[in-house]
Amino acid sequence: MTVLLDREAPRTLEALLRDLSRDHRGAVVEAWLFEDGEARRTAEEELAAAGVSARLRSGYKPLLHAFLEEIETEGLAAATIRYPVHPAAVPDRFLLEAYPVAALLDGVDLRFEPGDETLRYRVTLAYRDGRVLTTEVFAPNHLALDHLGVASLSPTGWLRVTGRFGGLPDLDERLETEVEALFRAAVDAVQARPWGSDEPYFERLSVAVEAPAVERTLPFHEEGVSLHEALHEDLYFTLLEVFQRHSGRPVGDRGLQPGQIVPEIRTASAAPRVRVETVPFGDLADEAGDWPEQPLETAAAPPSIAQVHRELAALGGQPILARSRQGRAVPGLIRPGSRPAVVITGGQHANETTGVVGALRAARVLLQDPELHLALIPLENPDGYALHRRLCRDNPRHMHHAARYTALGDDLEYRTGAELYERAARQQAIERTGAQLHINLHGYPAHEWTRPFTGYLPRGFEMWTIPKGFFLILRHHPGWEEPGMALIRAITRRLARIEPLLKLNRAQLAAYGAHAGAGPFTVIDGIPCLIGPDERHAPPLTLITEYPDETIYGDGFVLGHTVQMATVLAAVEHHAAVMA
Known about the structure:
Distance between the termini: 58 Å
Strand content: 25-35%
Number of strands: 25
Shape: globular
Strand order of the largest sheet: 17-18-20-19-21-25-22-24-23
Number of helices: 14
Radius of gyration: 25 Å
């Protein structure tokens, strides 16, 4: 274990209270902070008692918080929102940052229009009683070079003070908050470390942060506002980019094997703090823990790794033998048969969990056909799955992309070399079956995904920043486009019978369209589809599902794995008929 950084930072809200309560009687204060509404309201009351008129707002998603906390929405008939368009950001950055205002104002005639580079939303509100009001919502941002040397426009704290005691000049300036300082300190500490040239650079890099919380559930599907989640995501992907650059790889390279990067964000019990250290796997207890047994058909949460193995063993077949970087067995089987072979995988990205259950449920049905030739790997990344379970104990609703990749820190699909670990299971499945169709069950964030301190949008994953319903991706070899399209249409026709799925897709596609436009996909039978050539994969057809399942439970989880199962069954049925 090696400690790279252990540092406290003063809580910005407490410092403001201390400074403004002294010699500021009669002053008017506006501040934008990364604090929840309750903490900001309490601080306003304390400042009022000291004779200071204060309004403390959220620096994270300021337009959304304005509608939640300040703008009167009762009786609102129409609204026009002109959003900033800044040259240092993509044109729809602030439109995306306004998500999910369109969904929350359901029934209001809402129009978004591009504005200028002034960092203000300009809002016109028309009420049913004839009133028309205008207001501005400041969006404090800071333009600076990020860890890659790229100019990044990112949300920040801000302070405005007028009427200061003794005629002191007014203040209108950036206020770096403790969360920003902790983020920057962690990244700087990792960048400054001499990591050498041999991958992996560590077994686990732990980044533990205690910081104020902004946690708020929103009344639209799985949506919420969580600064802790956003900080986890930004730390994880920023540090991946740091190591990609260190290794000489391009940003976004999924073959990098730095080791397992694990940000853990908790509410500060004392002063905000960050601790960065390397930790050997041998110091880790079994993270998966004991999960309750669940019937697969009604499973309301991801099953345990042990249950996945038991369910697989009950199916019979020939085992696929592979072990993960941390030594866990990868559950997999091959059942030979005379019908066209299909490979089914799930859990490549271990925080995408509906595919694990959907694959097992589909296999139960498919293997009733004694002639079906099938390879099944329902959980390709057990190390990531165990980490996901550990992280969900503290934050069960967060997407936890630290569990997306393997304990080596790579995306197993992109792994090459002599030591394949988990990747060996998929390779065996494809080589031993000769399958021409690989069904690869995935998920993606069920709510907004942001990186607030490196430009807001998740770099390289901008299309996935907000949900758009259940999604299909087809990758095909040259000459396979026509059978691929036929496969897609057979699946979407089957899925169009699932009314709760269509309802989910309609709502999420409408919200996506309001904040992101039409998107690069084609909607077929209510299902967004992205189809294109790709020769990276051995099978000529690779079908990828994308259910918004990071992290969902209850009826939503049941619908998710039911849709995954239905997709597999429709794909296998169509493929078998065509190949026959």
